[in-house]
Amino acid sequence: MFSSKDSTAWRLLSHFLPRSSTVTKSTIRKISSTEITIVTAYWNLGTFRKGSNQLFTKNTYLTWTKSFKYLMNPLLIYTDCEEFRDTMQKLRSEGNLTYETEIFFIDRTKLWPFALVDQIQNVYRQPGYPAHYPNTVIPAYAAAQHAKYAVVADAVKKNIYNTSYYAWLDVGYFRDLIRSDEFFELKRPPDFDPSRLAVNLVSRQNMATKPYSIFRYNIVWVGGGLFIGAKDIVTKFERLYYKAVLYFLDQKLMNSDQQVLFSMYSKEGRKALRPDIELQLYIPKGHGNPWFYLGYLCRKTVQRNNETEFS
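and the corresponding structure tokens:
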């Protein structure tokens, strides 16, 4: 059971909340016309192998940024890469969206997931621990996946645009739209439950599967590319997620956030962690890519009035 460590875990988590950042402009409170603030991040991990035969580079992510030129939601960006920061500044300026953009250029080690890199490495160095590239090979990659929950919680704390809901969006989520010039907005999905965190089901799984197998065999239940929640739900979920990461590290298990999520809500994980936030699963329908179903369900095109700004 994890309950005996709750107070210690929260004190540690509070220590890693960012307290100072470089920002593109004054972070005075603003009012947005939309109800969801979008949060994204890029951490420069160099070139790494993805899966069996792909190589991801910094340019891979820079290419995928093009869809953010047309995203109408308020956008908070966290990064430690100057080129990524400058590219995003340029894109949002070209889209006349600087009034709904904040960029935080920070030292990633100030976020709690990156402070765990050595512990993650120790798990991966165990004899016979399976190599799933890059999830169980590059500790900083796993930390980057965990960091999405930290930065979204930090965005809620800042609440710059005073929106009711917050969403994490992977840089490459709308990679298929980089040639599109349609402005769009992400809205809450149909039948959204504000007491839960909305996520995308990727593959139906047996919830009796042991976390040992989930982590070591790289099993995915829900996708980590997008999640949406009310402010208080996002904040509570980060605390739960942080406890889960520490718990599984103690069990000598680690992988990406997708394996953490499955393990948290598995039968064994529920018994150990007693999650106080439930997930709302959106089940893919139709013939599209199931990994991106929720994002396209939320995506609505917008007829842009270039003279409209909010302050």
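(Above: one complete record from the training split.) DSSP finds ten helices and twelve strands in the chain.
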